[in-house]
Amino acid sequence: MYTPLLAISTLAIVLIVLGVLVAIALILGVLGIRARNRRQASTWADHVAAADAALEQARASDRGWHRDVMEGVARGALEQQRPGWDYRNLHLVLVDDQPGMDEDRAHFVAVDDAGTEARVILGRQQGDWVAESVE
After folding, report:
1. Which residue segments constitute the domains of the chain, with CATH numbers given?
2. What is the tens place of the pLDDT at every residue in 41-53?
3. What would the 3-class secondary structure string for the chain be?
4. pLDDT digit string, tens, across residues 93-104
């Protein structure tokens, strides 16, 4: 008479196979998500930066701040602190609108062709924009 050493029911075999298939699907899903994130990493940062800049500009214009005046003050501060520096772009990156005008702050970042950056921090004094620092 023959007695098998390992007796497994059909249900147990089906459950083991399903468990293995679910584990494989999870592993492949995680690997796929990681590959997608690596492919989109550079464009993701660009989209976030563009959205942040657009949000800050919208907040500034909604509060009655005049971007052209603020940019003029930032450009003047850059010319005074870094004479002759040829920057390519001037981005509004932060608006800090506090209660009362004298507590308001705005941060601009100037970028040249080599990627060198300078941050200009503006504040308000008696309703006028003034450069507080150029970093």
Report:
1. 65-134 (3.10.450)
2. 777 567 667 767 7
3. CCCCCCCCCHHHHHHHHHHHHHHHHHHHHHHHHHHHHHHHHHHHHHHHHHHHHHHHHHHHHHCCCCHHHHHHHHHHHHHHHCCCCCCCEEEEEEEECCCCHHHCEEEEEEECCCCCEEEEEEEEECCEEEEEEEC
4. 888 877 777 788
